[in-house]
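hey
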């Protein structure tokens, strides 16, 4: 991946019924479908939380990652948001959104910051004034997590990554 902002979106759908094998997982980069798993027998599974950050970091890895413009919906493909985190009406399927414009992790029920290596900074902003920065300097994981109030059978999340 080049050293530039990328829009990353994951779309997940449970199978419609037991044995239907029509569940799927799709990955979009910059609004282009780059991979999918289809024919999944996942009707007993559901999406109930999301973790965004850095985990299982190999020894010797270092650098900084920036995250911004997170949005989750309980419907299909979200696509790019050319105007940033501004929401358009009606948005009946919105589950959670945070562009880190509060300047902190206040909107996230849980944040593992690895002693400050995960932070909200202006340098991490792709949209607006703030974004999430992950300074990778050891093998410790870090990230933010939210949990939906209800389990989801169809889920899409988009964020920007540099």
């Amino acid at each position: 991946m080049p050293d530039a902002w990328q829009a990353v979106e994951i779309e997940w759908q449970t199978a419609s019924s037991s044995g239907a094998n029509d569940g799927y997982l799709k990955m979009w980069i910059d609004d282009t479908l780059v991979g999918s798993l289809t024919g999944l027998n996942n009707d007993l599974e559901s999406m109930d939380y999301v973790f965004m950050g850095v985990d299982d970091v190999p020894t010797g890895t270092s650098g900084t990652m920036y995250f911004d413009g997170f949005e989750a919906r309980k419907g299909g493909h979200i696509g790019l948001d050319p105007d940033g985190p501004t929401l358009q009406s009606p948005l009946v399927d919105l589950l959670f959104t945070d562009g880190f414009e509060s300047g902190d992790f206040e909107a996230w029920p849980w944040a593992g910051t690895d002693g400050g290596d995960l932070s909200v900074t202006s340098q991490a902003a792709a949209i607006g004034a703030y974004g999430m920065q992950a300074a990778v300097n050891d093998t410790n994981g870090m990230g933010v997590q939210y949990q939906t109030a209800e389990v989801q059978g169809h889920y899409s999340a988009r964020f920007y990554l540099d």
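Confidence is low (pLDDT under 50) at residues 84-91. Residues 66 and 133 are 4 Å apart (CA to CA).
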